[in-house]
Design brief:
Length: about 260
């Protein structure tokens, strides 16, 4: 009888051991679906996952008047891309593109938290779309990302607009940085400054208002203003301001309208 009990105990132990191994194997398998082996390069898998996810997202039903749930569904279609955020890439630039893409997805996820604030929702969703479009277009152009004709057309168009805006902002920022004011006279307690500036950008401004932060010891002492109406590309204009403040450097910013 004791021998029989012993056999039963051994058999139960064996069954439990097999069950434990099976559970462990299932856990490892499922974990493998949500992460990338850090000892392997993820470059090829990332490109493949991007193609599959975009195709999956495109097939999600998205009505003309979408609800918050509809927006959630299209974002969730790309959830698996997050397993690449800590992956090892052979191509460091591709790793950056992966990060940029995840940042874009996160912006669109954040947009969902503003479902009752149309302005905030639109801002975050569009910023996320802009970031994603730039990455997708570069992956298509440089890394042979497979896209449907519809996705290719949409993301290519958005990426072009976003890049044009980035280039425009960079050119205008460089224009502001190039402005050099010189002291022309002192009168009573005021000092007068002026700068002759050529519009080196390709843009025609219908209005330009410079905001010049006058800084001393890294503290803004005053913001001076100087504006001009029409300022065409290639034309030179003179900006002027006066101040009674002492400063050791200045920073130029501006508000503008482009024809």
């Amino acid at each position: 009888m004791k021998k029989a009990k012993k056999i039963i105990v051994i058999a139960l132990s064996a069954i439990l051991a097999v069950s434990a191994i099976s559970v462990a194997m299932i856990f490892v398998y499922k974990s493998g679906q949500n992460s990338i082996d850090p000892t392997e390069y993820a470059d090829t898998k990332f490109i493949s996952a991007m193609s599959k996810n975009l195709s999956k997202r495109e097939k999600v039903d998205f009505p003309d008047t979408p609800s918050t749930e509809d927006y959630e569904n299209v974002v969730n279609a790309e959830e698996s891309i997050y397993k690449f955020q800590d992956a090892t890439f052979k191509d460091e630039h591709l790793k950056k593109l992966c990060k940029d893409y995840i940042d874009g997805l996160n912006l669109q996820k954040e947009a969902l938290t503003y479902s009752t604030d149309y302005t905030k929702f639109t801002e975050y969703w569009q910023n996320g779309l802009d970031a994603r479009s730039l990455v997708i277009n570069e992956l298509y152009q440089e890394y042979d990302l497979k896209l449907s004709d519809k996705n290719k057309k949409n993301f290519e168009s958005t990426a072009k607009t976003v890049q044009e805006n980035i280039d425009k902002e960079a050119a205008i920022k460089a224009l502001f940085k190039s402005i050099e004011f010189i002291k022309v006279k002192e009168e009573y307690k005021y000092t007068y400054y002026e700068a002759t500036v050529e519009n080196t950008t390709e843009y025609d401004f219908s209005y330009m208002n410079l905001k010049i932060n006058l800084i001393k010891d890294d503290v803004i002492q005053e913001t001076a203003y100087s504006n001009i109406g029409v300022w065409q590309s290639g034309a030179k204009v003179k900006f002027e301001f006066m101040t009674d403040k002492v400063f050791d450097k200045y920073e130029v910013h501006g508000d503008y309208f482009i024809d």
